[in-house]
Amino acid sequence: MAIGWRRRGWAGLAAGLAAVLVALWAGYWFAADRLARTAVERALAAPVAGHRVGCRDPVFGGFPLRIDLRCQRLTYARDGEAVTAALGGLAASAPLYRPGVVDAILGSPLQVNAPALGVALTATWSHAAADLSAWLDGPRGGVVRFISLAVEDAADPPGLPVTGLRAATAEAGVTPTADGHRLTIAVAGLGLTRETGATLPDIDGEASVTAEGLGPLGMNPVARLLDWLRAGASVRIDHLRLAAAGAVVIAEGGLELSEEGLLSGSVLLRFNSVDAFAALLEAIRPGARERYALALQGLNAVSLPVQTGEGMFRQTALTFTDGVVWLGIIPLPIDPIPPIRF
Fold first, then answer.
1. What global pTM score does this model have?
2. Which of the listed residues 1, 124, 126, 189 has the most CB atoms within 10 Å of its CB?
């Protein structure tokens, strides 16, 4: 009898404890849901520092493990109509067991208009997802992935020779590091369209670049980034690889932007062959192989053969000194890069 009573006692205690935990979790979810609703309603109620956000037909949910928000259409406007954007839909989810993390599905299309800049972009895709990380002090990082991405610009941006692009897959991410933030990009089947309507050879590429000294992004990441650039920015190219029309280029190095906007640094270049590089130039601009024959011979002369994980490549250094560009020890016969202002 004593043993049976003990078993029933422990079972009752376990059931009571479970009921308390369920009640606490339900209270946690309803509190988080209330906070999320209040934050969204406040953001939609009125412009903040000239920025207005809209969410058509917002729907909340996700009980008991997540806080979900769905918008049939997401809109943005800055300073009246200086910049406007509209997203074809948003489904965001914040798991309560992973505080500070938001997963989202982005609905196509995205339309961005900035008349003063000559921008009238329309982006479409078959699937797009984003994973974001944030805390009380602002965003920490994130990644966005696209499948079957296409971008067209109906305007005529000044000085921009490309009016559209497409990519089989595209991914971009930002993660904090001990000395800054790392930007990673990967694209497959990237095609660019010129203003003439001609298309350039498809490109496969990947890059990893670290913005050194770029601390926490805070609540205004754009302003923080501009302050970092204006104070003199330092960027480390951890890895860069581009492949197109049989040519492969690999790069690593570092670049610095002075407070005056002048670019300095050195980048180590590796390419699979001068002939492949010449074929790529010819595909981009017919007649370039003959026009740049001497320059290609010079590139071959200042490069050395090296063994890489992809086979034998040629290697040389591209150096920037206050905007002047050098190939090895030879200054390139081009105008210095003008100061870059932000």
1. 0.86
2. 124
Amino acid at 195: E
| Amino acid letter for position 32 | A
Q: How far is CA 250 from CA 180, 241, 311, 331, in A?
A: 23, 4, 12, 21
How many whole angstroms separate alpha carbon 101 and alpha carbon 133?
5
Using the CB atoms, write b or e for 81-119: b if 16+ within 10 Å: eebbbbbbebebbbebeeeebbbbebbbbbbbbbeeeeb
CB contact at 8 A, 150 and 166: yes
Query: What are the φ/ψ torsions at residue 304 (nearest 5 degrees)?
Result: -120, 150
Q: Report how far residue 327's alpha carbon sits from residue 336's, in angstroms, rounded to the nearest whole number.
A: 13
Mean pLDDT, all residues of the chain: 87
The rounded distance, in Å, linking the Cα atoms of 112 and 218 is: 25
> Is-contact 108 91, C-beta < 8 A?
no
Taking alpha carbons only, the member of 222, 234, 241, 229 closest to residue 308 is 241
Mapping DSSP to helix (H, G, I), strand (E, B) and coil, where does residue 194 land? strand
334 CB neighbour count, 10 Å cutoff: 8
Residue with tokens 């980048």: 267
The Cβ of residue 219 has, within 10 Å, a number of other Cβ atoms equal to: 12
DSSP summary character for residue 158: T
Residue 12, pLDDT > 70, answer: no
The upper half-sphere exposure of residue 334, i.e. CA atoms within 13 Å in the direction of its Cβ, equals 11
